[in-house]
Amino acid sequence: MTQLVRLMLISLMVIGLTRIAAAQSYASEHYRLKVVTVAQGLVKPWALAWLPDGRMLVTERPGRLRVVSPDGEISAPVRGLPDVDDRGQGGLLDVLIDPDFLKNRLIYLSYSEPGSDGSGTVVARAELRDDGLEKIKVIFRQFPKVESGLHFGSRLALASDGTLFITVGERGQREMAQDPSVNRGQVIRIHTDGRIPADNPFVGRPGHRPEIWSYGHRNPQGAAIHPETGALWIHEHGARGGDEVNIPKPGGNFGWPVIAYGTHYSGAKIGIGRSAPGMEQPIHYWDPSIAPSGLAFYSGDVFPKWRGSLLVGALKFRLVARLTLKGERVVGQEALVADIGERIRDVRQGPDGYVYLLTDSRAGRILRLEPES
Predict the structure, then answer these.
(1) HEC profile for the chain?
(2) What is the pLDDT of residues 294-331, one digit of tens each?
(3) Residue 26 CA to chain centroid, in angstroms?
(4) Domains, the chain, ordered by start
(5) Which residues are catalytic?
(6) Confidence check: pLDDT of 102 > 80
(7) How far apart are CA 224 and CA 340, in angstroms?
(8) What is the pLDDT of residue 16?
């Protein structure tokens, strides 16, 4: 049992008023942390991103986009959003702001799109204006749709070359994660206008969709670009155990459901074991599962001893995992704000260098981690 797992299990023993009293202050390896509520009253918030003027865009899974001021004032829903299917794990999901927003006003949204054949992960771009969204254009549409409310993936990450990475879950159809003729359990790479990059690994290959970057994933709900190498890192949900951190390689097969760490929820073995020729290994995994959601590299000045760390939100155990890295290896980990009392849906570094969290509930909050003075 790892040190992180021991800390998580110990944290679950803290109950009642003791847990509530400790909710605003936590010890960590390098800092004592203060948890500040920036905003509250959001309904199932899923992702946040910063506008150049310091305001935040926050998605709510039922299909609303909010603008939140630095002092926590929450706007009315932004007008002009597309219809979303908010059944199960679907809804309005990730949000990304274009680096040239001041010139082009572009933002990117991922969501579960309803249709006659079910729903599917979709990414659209739109111009954000004072009176709402304009010129909405779908730039990626998962093929095919399916009658399932599971595993939409849906994290977005913009690479330094201007291409857009999109994570797509296998929608509960686990065997199809090994079928490159459909969009199930993949990392997608496209240009921000929807075109397919000519150097994608499967361009021109029969039976393979050209937008695929890597496949054999389960349900990736975290994606971030390494600030030094420019490589995409993701994490993905396992079943019963086996949550993974992966660095998707072009054309790489990451094994689900042929290989995996952990077991099915029934306790049954997954596939043939933990490894197989031609299938990639994770750089890190958790067993038991922490149900990861949200991913960020820390590079700020507020917590200098965290620089280079990977921060992972956790729905289970209600914490943030901080992974210490040496190159592409995880060499240490600790549980931050363990058992905060709410599921952590997203974790981001703000432009001010603080760490921001979204809590996943019908009274969701934006939280800020600060070092206690």
Answers:
(1) CCHHHHHHHHHCCCCHHHHHHCCCEEECCCCEEEEEEEEEEECCEEEEEECCCCCEEEEECCCEEEEECCCCCECCCCCCCCCCCCCCCCCEEEEEECCCHHHHCEEEEEEEEEECCEEEEEEEEEEEECCEEEEEEEEEECCCCECCCCCCCCCEEECCCCCEEEEECCCCCHHHHHCCCCCCCEEEEECCCCCCCCCCCCCCCCCCCCCEEEECCCCEEEEEECCCCCCEEEEECCEEECEEEECCCCCCECCCCCECCCECCCCCECCCECCCCCCCCCCEEECCCCCEEEEEECCCCCCHHHCCCEEEEECCCCEEEEEEEECCEEEEEEEECCCCCCCEEEEEECCCCCEEEEECCCCEEEEEEEECC
(2) 999 999 999 999 999 999 999 999 999 999 999 999 99
(3) 24
(4) 3-371 (2.120.10.30)
(5) 151
(6) yes
(7) 24
(8) 31
The amino acid at residue 32 is R
> Residue 258 has which token pair?
């042929």
